[in-house]
Write the structure tokens for this entry.
Amino acid sequence: MPTEFYYPKNVTQHDIPAGHDDASNSGGANKGASTQPSGGRLGPMSHDDIATYVTLTMSAVPKRQAVNMDWPLVGTLGSVFSLGFRSLAGAGAHTRECRFTNAAGATSSSTLQSASTAGVWATVGPSDVSNAANWRPGGGAWSPADFGDDKTLMIEFWASTNGGNSGIYTSGWGQLEYLPPGGGFVFLLGLAGLGALPFIGAMDFGQFMRYLSWRRAHHPRHTILSGDEVRQAWRELREYRYPRFFLPAL
């Protein structure tokens, strides 16, 4: 199975549960953009740090910020699922945390924690979050449906120390091992043997048809797709939000 990084979505936040939208935005177009690491889907991981970030300024109650996630289209989950975040104590030493939540306000029972002193950047993880009993909001077992859209499962930054201290968060991310849902696109992946497809980035229908011609000529079975399979593959390819290439499992 291929393993890819996931990131917050670079869109306006939406469907955030009440009491989980407390951060102020500093840099970037919105709270999603502020927590978007640079470096590309496959890494290396890099961070803007002070250039773009969200800030939780604590008062008498804990402060939280959920961010919508850019999940892949999951058909079958693998064994790799990790979570990490990068943060800074902006004012006053305190513990900063990261966990999962959803639009209903349920949260994971486990959290990642960073307790660096003021002015010291800290990267926590990525740590294994595959144990759904600890990391899935509400417990239970991980399901492909948990990754169905960007509000069923979100990353949440959390600052629970009272007072005027502030926690700065620059990024949240992780890795997920999975196969996409069945259909035309998965059929194409099967033809490619989960190796690198011969294109990266945006694609038009003409390029897509040229790819199918190339695939028919070079695949050992010279496979020909039916008209329905071609249309299904094109629809799924257009909807697919991740890179148009895959690395084989190690």
Q: What stands out?
A: Residues 3-179 form a domain with the Jelly Rolls fold (CATH 2.60.120).
